[in-house]
Specification:
The chain is an alpha+beta fold. Helix content is 18%, strand content 39%. It is elongated.
Length: 223
């Protein structure tokens, strides 16, 4: 009888131990998830905007992308490729591409950057490119965006990054066109306290609304 009682007691202790371990594991996971904070790109003002064309712009975006997907906490970049609208138009024309860049100050507060890359309302250029670089111009991410680009998940580390720069680039042409890139649900993660967003975001240098009556041009430009 004593042997059976000992066996039963050991089984009870084993069950209690397993339950304790499971509860402790759930608590650790819950605490870890609770410590992870999100800071959305559309709540942050950029620290610098460098463009030789007044038509280029970037701004928070809410609405649908080219494929009808609803975009929230999104950020949109617009690229003007008409070389004649650039202050250095001869240079842009001769080199064959147009670009601008936007920089956000992260102050090394974040761990990762997450978003879904997708085409905006129109991509007339065939393909335009987005590159994301750190303080030392090291390439963290790059991809081409065409009409077929549809909610591509992106995630990469920004640990130790003080300045994050977005470069938007496409082949220059001598006609007006619409080229929109959207980063849907774009946010930075951090552990611990949530970094405070800027209290006075820098506005876009121009109204992001672009005229909808462009001069007709080639229907299939070479990229």
């Amino acid at each position: 009888m004593k042997a059976k009682q000992k066996t039963s007691l050991l089984k009870q202790l084993l069950v209690i131990l397993m339950v304790t371990v499971m509860v402790a594991g759930i608590s650790v996971v819950g605490a870890s998830a609770a410590d992870t904070k999100k800071t959305y790109l559309d709540t942050m003002g950029y620290s610098s905007f460098n463009s030789d064309s007044p038509k280029n712009s970037c701004s928070p975006f809410k609405g649908e992308d080219l494929h009808g997907n609803e975009c929230t906490n999104a950020y949109q970049f617009y690229l003007d490729v008409d070389w004649s609208s650039y202050s250095n138009k001869d240079e842009v024309h001769n080199r064959g591409w147009a670009s601008y860049n936007v920089t956000f100050k992260l102050d090394s507060k974040y761990d990762s950057f997450n978003f879904k890359l997708t085409a905006g309302n129109r991509i007339d250029q065939g393909t335009v490119n987005i590159s994301i670089l750190d303080d030392n111009n090291n390439l963290l991410y790059s991809n081409g965006v065409s009409e077929n680009t549809n909610q591509i998940p992106v995630n990469f580390s920004v640990k130790g990054v003080n300045l994050l720069t977005f470069e938007i680039k496409g082949p220059s042409e001598r006609y007006y066109s619409n080229n929109y890139i959207i980063l849907n649900n774009a946010y930075f993660t951090s552990n611990g306290s949530t970094p405070e967003p800027p209290t006075d975001p820098t506005p876009s240098p121009i109204d992001p609304t672009v005229p909808t009556d462009p001069t007709p041009g080639p229907t299939d430009p070479t990229v």
